[in-house]
Design brief:
Number of helices: 12
Structural class: mainly alpha
Oligomer: single chain
Radius of gyration: 21 Å
Helix content: over 70%
Order of helices and strands: HHHHHHHHHHHH
């Protein structure tokens, strides 16, 4: 920036560094400077959206994310972040649409499938998504552990057995699954907090 004061990308990168250091006000100023210098770069608006996300100002974060998508409709990261925002605000239908759009644009991203898994309504849908997730990245630990839980819920203990023989044998998740396997009946499964809350509300009526 000292050498080239109108270097927009440098201001945006500085903003990212400031975000990581929790200096949100300075980050916002730096990213807005980048936008002032180049108002047609979608990445800058998405980065500004992440500042407002950290501010817990989700409405303004949404405005900035949508600006990024308006500039670049094929910006998969922006669609994914919009999915996070919708999910955070319990708008699961729109969240699923955004995650699926991100997958359409970047089909090999295991993390996006993991995000989509958290919106599953049935055990069959959840299992299908996790299997695809693992095809994209067999080292996705969260997906492997959760698939073993789903299999256990269906009476298949082979996945759990394999994990107990692996280097993950002392993982706390494995201990939890072993405890669940000894229950007299399977508990209900929910893949996100919103569906759990809805069920609690129904049960309390």
């Amino acid at each position: 920036i000292e050498i080239q004061s109108d270097f927009a990308a440098a201001y945006c990168n500085m903003g990212r560094i400031l975000i990581n250091h929790g200096k949100l006000k300075e980050a916002e100023e730096s990213i807005r400077k980048a936008i002032q210098l180049n108002p047609f770069e979608a990445e800058y608006y998405l980065t500004l959206g992440s500042v407002f996300w950290d501010y817990i100002d989700y409405e303004e974060a949404k405005i900035q994310i949508l600006k990024a998508i308006n500039i670049n409709p094929n910006y998969s990261d922006a669609h994914e972040m919009l999915g996070y925002l919708f999910k955070n605000n319990a708008n699961l239908k729109e969240a699923k649409k955004s995650f699926r759009k991100a997958i359409e644009l970047k089909p090999n991203c295991s993390q996006t499938y993991w995000n989509l898994y958290g919106l599953a309504k049935t055990i069959e849908e959840a299992e299908e998504i996790l299997n695809i997730c693992l095809k994209k990245d067999n080292n996705n630990l969260k997906a492997r552990l959760n698939l073993s839980a789903i299999k256990l819920h269906q009476g298949d203990k082979s996945f759990l057995s394999d994990l107990k023989k692996s280097k993950l044998k002392n993982h706390p998740f494995i201990s939890s699954l072993e405890w669940v396997s000894k229950l007299s009946e399977n508990p209900k499964l929910f893949f996100n907090q919103w569906d759990l809350y809805d069920n609690i509300a129904e049960e309390s009526n």
